[in-house]
Design a protein that fits this description.
alpha/beta; eight-stranded parallel β-sheet; 38% helix
Amino acid sequence: MTAPAEPPTEDLSRLAELHGVATSYSPSPDRTVAASATAVTLALAALGIDASTPEAVRGALAARERELRERLLPPTVVCWGGSTSPALAALPEGTGLRIETEQGETRAAAERLPPGVHRLTATAPDGRTARSHLVVAPARLPTPTGRSYGLLVQLYSLLSRRSWGMGDLGDLGELTAWAGRALGAGFVQVNPLHAAVPGAPTDPSPYRPSSRRFPDPVHLRIEDVPEFAYVTDPERVRSLRERAGRLRAAVLEEGALIDRDAVWELKREALELIREVPLGPGRRAAYCDFLAEHGQALEDHATWYALAEVHGPDWHRWPAGLRDPRSRETARARSELMDRVDFHCRLAWLTDAQLTAAQRTAREAGMPVGVVHDLAVGVHPQGADAWAQQEYLAAGMSVGAPPDAFNARGQDWGLPPWRPDRLAGSGYAPFRRLLRALFRYAGALRIDHVMGLFRLWWVPQGHPPTQGTYVRYDAEAMLAILVLEAARAGAVVIGEDLGTVEPGVRERLRERGVLGTSVLWFERDWEGDGRPLPPDRWREDCLATATTHDLPPTAARLTGEHVELRHGLGLLTRPLEEERAQAAADAGEWLELLARLGLLPGTGGGTDTASEEAGIQAVHRFLLHTPARMVGVWLPDGVGDRRPQNLPGTWDQYPNWRLPIADAEGRPVTLEELAASPRARALFDVLRPGDVPRSGDVPRSGGGR
């Protein structure tokens, strides 16, 4: 039997507290678990704090206490909506201020400053000085006007008759134009479109990208690149189109999985041809503007991809000098590989242009929001961002989740976390640049695991997730940067706040105008009898959906097919009959509530196609009767797809992130077929804006449950 891990000593606990490292966590409201001294010590080491011996702990503690006692201001100060920051209010009387604004002005007071991230210098009467970043943000994001419904889709899964083996940005443009004009939809939400780590095979998960700052050119619609029309090798073009047709047919007609690597190999060949076509004067000027706007960040990104072509995609295995993006060896290699660096810069520009066009198409189609992009919680440790932003990431640590009632082993997501101290010292510069890059073409941004703005579970390399601990971030500053950049872009922000959420987090997000996420199957009266939560008791400031990419589609949930899938893969933790009974009871409780509210004709609950469709429609009628400001429809629900796009807990056992949208029989469905599908139109008709009720139009459930 393994001996329990030693808890931190009193001095180590105090040192950890002063650096935002937790010494315990609560997997449930009635239980507290101590973090191990090893986990705390390693987290501190990743923050540059030596706590390896009692003497080192005492020395580090004394130094930290002295630093906090003597400093005038923290590295970053926040002012909300013109209010006075508590940090500024606490300055000694007579302290002089000098503020250099983002707009180039110099002020002597913090009142009525324009929004932005400014430079603040404080000089106390005793001669002490401090230089800080001053974030001035609106008090909250504006509440979206009215309510809207939209479609949720994993873009790669939606192939049209023009796709090259996976859904692309041309398909996104077609989808938004159709959804906005024909359906009256207000938004389309897609998976993260961040740049992937190249490899054979490439990690298909969109949530482990190489870079979150730049998009992946695999999503390009090649025919929409203007220079493609001027490629002078007709035989090569004909061959590309024929091979693209074979990739498309393999998925749509032969049952093959989406092969991202094959798609990229083909598109890269096409893009190499396109690059031989000279840019016209206007296009050249636009490209130069893009290069100037993105500067060092783009150069680093393109340099990493150029170096990866030579040395492989894991920068930890490159020659020592190239592991540092600022070294002389890297500068020399960049110069030698300038042609390839330019190629990858151009790919980023072309992809950015098509993303911008997709959002423009959405707005022209009447969508008040447009495209909702998804920000992954982190980046792959071997990728471009991890190489270029090493100083901002905690070496030897990975983001994950602690053990809980659903996963006793915890989770390790393999993503290096931000260092909160380095973020604060920079005025959150890398976070600001990341948000600005995404808001260029987003009408809204979904923040995956939005709780990460407050704290993240750090897992030391080589240790199980159970041996991690939470590290806290300055949530006020992170939120202020998020609100500032979203307000500048006129964008909505949606936080994915599912699962275990620290008390107070949802309230603070709501205070700043950040919407939450509510998924029907999780909305139960957990503090009461545990039964489904009636619509009048749902929160208003949220995106309400029936399911997500990590959960079974609604048809599978209503029929219990998700249990059979997990059973076939050996993932059940209870006997099959017990799981079946629980799934049937869960679905039955919801169907009973839907029927009682008059949303489900007849008694429902059957497995034939008509009753299944009626059940799916009733679920979405229910969502419309909640006060939720945004209602999302999982696009595969429109055609009765049974398969989740991702099945957590699996890797090779299930084709995560590689499935095309399919109908109830498992036959892949094209975008054109989906748009013409009577089943899909019947579901979308339920959600059309003219039929959207106000919360309260359905009778309250009262005490009849």
